[in-house]
Amino acid sequence: MSELTRKSASELAGLLQSGEISSVELTQAHLDRTAAVDEQVHSYLHVGPTAALAAATEIDKRRAAGEKLHPLAGVPIAVKDNLTTTDAPTTSGSKILEGWMPQYDATVVKKLRAAGMPILGKTNLDEFAMGSSTEFSAYGPSKNPWDLNRIPGGSGGGSSSAVSSFQAPLAIGSDTGGSIRYPAFVTGTVGIKPTYGAISRYGLIALASSLDQIGPVARNVLDAALLQDVIAGHDPHDSTSLPESLGSMTNAAQNADVKGMRIGVIKQLTGEGFQPEVSARFSESLELLKNAGAEIVEVSCPSFEYAIAAYYLILPAEASSNLAKFDSVRFGLRVTPEGTPTIERVMAATREAGFGPEVKRRIILGTYALSSGHYEAYYGAAQKVRTLIQRDFNAAFEKADVLVSPTAPATAFRFGEKVSDPLAMYLNDIATIPANLAGIPGISIPNGIAENNMPSGIQFLAPAREDARLYRVGSALEKMHEDLWGKNMMAFAPELEVSN
Known about the structure:
Shape: globular
GO cellular component, one term: mitochondrion
EC number: 6.3.5.7
Number of strands: 11
CATH class: Alpha Beta
InterPro entries: Amidase, Amidase_CS, Amidase_dom, AS_sf, GatA
Enzyme class: ligase
Protein name: glutaminyl-tRNA synthase (glutamine-hydrolyzing)
């Protein structure tokens, strides 16, 4: 493996700026890495070497001409395949969009191109981002580079596994209930769900519009901060886009300090139900924070007990509405049944063939929750619980600057363990879902290795618009762990066999 693929994005940016390497050389190194290992890991649904190398060549020319470029110009990146791209198919992991070529780039993609970051390819995901393991991708699951028999998380398992297997230094994910943070937890990477509205969702194929948020995937906190600074900002194409800037995340990550910070341990997200080794790594991290001068306090958020139930009413309801546009008429798959092909029969046949089991399950549940006579009892009640969760967060943040919990109850499970039990799969999101319901930012960083040699992680949450606090505390704890271990978490990752 090229040593370039092992380096962080910030290190690579420095090498590019000094002229020690070219973007073409760097991009090719990652493409070579993908050619060598992705047959095993299956991080990508599409790899675009021609477009990536063309973008890298253009950046090298501009740099050689003395043009002032973005700090990450020339650093390649992977993009989750639910973001529209004009030069690559966008499938959202579904057969109903197989081969679809969008006519416009998502705002985030436009920003990456404007910054001069070559796009390596589109990463795998659970179909329409519905899942926690990528086992519901219509094109087969991604694998966890730490153990190829285990899941890399979901829905963004492709992005997390690409970064964890050194196929990309950075990636873009989307987080509706933990789809960035949970994959980061199980693959030893860093994942951020920014404040709702901090990053434009224009061009993101919607799952649940009031919950979805795009964010960075990286191997360290500084790299994630650099990426968020690229993709954040107001977008008039997105009516939920925040009008104001949240400041520099890079500065926050570079000025990490927890002395005097009040860190609130969420009572409802610790203890019973969490794997002993996950709890042990969590306690060790709290001790490090305490020794660094942070004040550890306990906070109670009683409404969190109902978060999963509320989420799995709100999400299916919004998903059933968002997915109604896949009707065989405007774009995507069209299946013509035998007999008289009325629009109703064509639509039914297309959706039957194009949607997978998890998507159908959630559409049915969501349609029922929104139906006449059930709306107030289900969707309406879930929205009331959402308000209670937001109030719990407000009360907790009066006592603490940031909140903390394990990112998930247990380390990565083996393929097939939970695919037949949707409720068990849904419980993976118990710690991540509340942040989406409240619209607040969250970060997951690795905090050690469990007894099964799989990564564990810790989650920090901050008030809305206070994303910088996450980078501050996350970077500080990351440095404490690196001092303790003598190296970055990803240095512990086992090496994959490479194809010749």
